[in-house]
Amino acid sequence: MAAFKRSRFAMAALESLKAQTMPDWELIVAPDDGEDYRDLAHADARVKVAHSSAVRTGPAHARNRALEIACGELIAVLDDDDCVEPAFVAQALAYFKSHPTNFVTVPTEYFNHQTGAVVRQIGQFPAMGIDRFGLEFGTMHAIGRRCVYPEWKPGFAEDVMHTCKCIDLAGGEITVLPDANYRLRLHPDSLCATSDGPSISQSYRNLKANLPYDMSNAGARLTRELLQRRIRMNEAFWGQAGDRGYHEFVKRHGQAWREPAQNAEAHVSVWHLGNSSAC
Questions:
Q1: Are 211 and 220 within 8 A, CB to CB?
Q2: Which of 1, 161, 176, 223 has its CA 20 to 30 A from that of 137?
Q3: Is the dihedral of CA 240, 233, 109, 207 positive or negative?
Q4: Tens of pLDDT along 158-174?
Q5: How many Å is the Cα radius of gyration of the chain?
Q6: Distance between CA atoms of 257 and 271, rounded to whole angstroms?
Q7: CA–CA separation, 57 vs 153, rounded Å?
């Protein structure tokens, strides 16, 4: 867990771990804000804090600091404002014990931080390649064996890029465990609510030009196609007026963007969305 000024949510994230049906887990908290997170360690003996003087280095560096001291055979990410369903740990442990695989993932459930209402769920299929991941327009964290789990690369969309790298390391596809969602909290300081559309699209273009990870030829090609789809969806979203958030927008219109990414220009010029939304 990379922790940055969300202590009120971090305790809720820990509570979701304490509610796990399988107790064999540890939580490594890596502060990136200079604040004291010992209250999390005091709340449960399975919590360790990766003490560091580093401040504002970004979630990738913070996660890597946690990765350095992790003792578990399996590695998963839990952001400080998210949570997981009670079967998350048990399902992951059971699958890795019975399958000679290095990576899996789980569906992601996006929920409103004020009401708790589910806005959108992605990843409801048995297996995922980079191409299938690219059609979800969301985040699905990879769970992996510590011996092969890659470090995080800092930069824009680092969650998405890390998952693409894990899929590529797995040979092009990873299993999706169906019964334990990763629950992602949507709130006013989420990226799509605090950044402008043109800067987000430019960040995706920069990633296309310089992928942060070394990948196979097929993995790199599919990752660039994923980024091109993200650009198209982002520009469609920010081109509309309304009061819906990004994930409500994608839920409503995402199916229309499932054509090949290389045909982007033709579809952008003729597709009409009607009344839609911006963050």
A1: yes
A2: 1
A3: negative
A4: 999 999 999 999 999 99
A5: 18
A6: 10
A7: 12
**The two three-digit tokens of residue 37, written as one number:** 């997170």
CA 275 to chain CA centroid, nearest Å: 28
Beta pairing partners, 183: 83, 109
- Strand 182-186 to 83-84 pairing: antiparallel
Residue 214 CA: distances (Å) to CA of 37, 102, 153, 169, 256: 35, 18, 11, 10, 31
d(CA 157, CA 153) in angstroms, rounded, equals 10
- 126 to each of 91, 135, 176, how far by Cα in Å? 14, 15, 5
Nearest to 130 by CA among 253, 213, 201, 227: 227
Please report the sign of the dihedral spanned by the C-alpha atoms of residue 15, residue 11, residue 3, residue 84: positive
Tokens of 90: 């048990």
pLDDT tens digit sequence for 176-225: 999 999 999 998 766 555 568 889 999 999 999 999 999 999 999 999 99
Give the whole-angstrom CA distance, residue 240 versus residue 260: 23
Q: Which of 62, 68, 23, 20 is nearest to 46 (CA)?
A: 23
Alpha helices in the chain (DSSP H): 7-18, 38-43, 59-69, 88-98, 130-134, 158-169, 191-194, 197-209, 217-238, 246-253, 264-270
